[in-house]
Amino acid sequence: MLIHLPQNTDMQKKYFVLLLLTSLLLTTAQFGNFINRVKDKVVQKSTARADNKVDKYIDKTLDKIEGKTDAPIVTTETDGNKGSNFTSFTKYDFVTGEQIVYAEDFSQEAIAELPLGWNTNGSGEVVTIENISGNWLRLHKSNLYLSANSKIFSFNYTVEFDLILQLKNNGWMYPTFSAGMMSTREEATTDNFFLTDWNKYTATVATIYPQENNNSKVKVELSKDSKITFTSEVKDYGALDQYYGKPVHVAIQVQKQRFRMWINSTKVFDMPKGVDTTYKMNQLLFKVGQTNYGEEQYGVYITNIKTAAGLPDTRHKLIEEGKFSTTGILFDVNSSVIKPESNGVVKEIATVLKENPSIKIKIIGHTSSDGDDKVNMDLSSQRAAAVKTLLTEEFKIDTSRIETEGKGETEAVGDNKTKEGRSQNRRVEFIKQ
Fold first, then answer.
1. Whole domain around residue 328: which residue ranges?
2. For 376-413, b where at least 16 C-beta lie within 10 A, e where not — what string?
3. Quick check: 325 pLDDT over 60?
4. How much is the mean pLDDT over the chain?
5. What is the CATH number of the domain that holds 155?
6. Per mean pLDDT, which range of 44-53, 183-192, 196-205, 395-404 is the poorest?
7. Does residue 267 sit in the same domain as residue 373?
8. According to a count of CB atoms within 10 Å of the terminal CB, is the N or C end of the chain lower?
9. What would the 3-class secondary structure string for the chain be?
10. Within a domain: residue 72?
């Protein structure tokens, strides 16, 4: 068996210069002994380093033969939310649905295992990533994944998730990443059959083609009866390579046939007939394409998955019903720092307040039951205050029109024993005064 050692051009140049210098010095007899010692050192060091590389290569090869899993790649970048400017999302008009149908952040899942209830034709494992908060599901090339959801999405719903593409140019094409919705009708949403025939009924799937030099692309395909019925125009999303190794927020909004998709603040698609409504969607799928990169050379991760039914009418809820509640204002973990992807919801509230200058509101923060009661109470108060600050400073709403309060986990609207219930409880309410 031939073993090919990794090449290092810089090291080869250094060795060449050193050997050239040695050859020149050999012409001078008085330096003969010195040169011989240098040559010996060069040989010893070269042999030691070569042996070390051979050992690593053999260990890695044996690990694969023995079925050992490569350790997940971790990034040395700081949290992707840090340094994000809320104003960079000023054109972001995505608003999450009203009622949580499915939620998954993998916080309750075992590390190094596929999440409970998920299915795949390959492998996947929950991991943590250095300097980035939360648990993440690592996806592998040439594999398809079905979520643990089993509920119908209805015809109006939203889908959100965070994505990390840990990619570094090494001469090969990057793996594609696909995400979308599908229908399994009355059949089980994680049946093995759908791992190969995921578009047996209907499906809408967006595929990201990561590249370098601002050349990344995205397209959407519709399927029905196991056949692709429509392929969208291929859209540019050149900003993607700026986020390799950092979290990217993906959001999809479906209004019957209308399909809209955002990557961070950019609306990539707004297709009037981007969804086939023959059957109601009831499953999420994620897929990673083929690549020549080894498993240790790339990483694809997802988390904070949320599907919510209904499209909230902020104006009607707040003005006529006197109360608007949303899970669409997102915060950093255990923090009152508002994530920039919350802009769509906050902007809608600000618009309603500007159109109705006599109205005053109270902002109430709520949390799930995770963590300490007192900490949750304080955190909910701080988050309500942060929303007020954003409305007054960013959107110029008079501070005298807004009161704030935190109620922690005391007024749950969902079952704290379920992921969906906890997600529904992490909300912000706006009450007309």
1. 314-432
2. bbbbbbbbbbbbbebbbebeebeeebbebebbbbeebe
3. yes
4. 85
5. 2.60.120.560
6. 44-53
7. no
8. N
9. CCCCCCCCHHHHHHHHHHHHHHHHHCCCHHHHHHHHHHHHHHHHHHHHHHHHHHHHHHHHHHHHHCCCCCCCCCCCCCCCCCCCCHHHHCCCCCCCCCEEEEEECCCCCCCCCCCCCCEECCCEEEEEECCEEEEEEEECCCCEEECCCCCCCCCEEEEEEEEEEECCCCCCCCCCEEEEEECCCCCCCCCHHHHCCCCCCEEEEEEEECCCCCCCEEEEEEEECCEEEEECCCEECHHHHHHCCCCEEEEEEEECCEEEEEECCEEEEEECCCCCCCCCCCEEEEEECCCCCCHHHCEEEEEEEEEEECCCCHHHHHHHCCEEEECCCCECCCCCCECHHHHHHHHHHHHHHHHCCCCCEEEEECCCCCCCHHHHHHHHHHHHHHHHHHHHHCCCCCHHHEEEEECCCCCCCCCCCCHHHHHHHCCEEEEEC
10. no
Does some domain include residue 2? Answer: no
The string of pLDDT tens digits covering residues 72-114 is 433 323 333 333 345 567 778 899 999 999 999 999 999 999 9
Q: Are residues 335 and 216 in the same domain?
A: no
pLDDT at 72: 40
For residues 153 and 15, state if they share a domain: no
Residues 175 and 296 in one domain: yes
Paired with 317 in beta bridges are none
The 10s digit of each residue's pLDDT in 352-381 is 999 999 999 999 999 999 999 999 999 999
| Domain contains 160 | yes
Residue type at 385?
A
Domain total for the chain?
Answer: 3
Instruction: Say whether both 206 and 302 belong to one domain.
Output: yes
The answer to whether residue 219 sits within a structural domain is yes
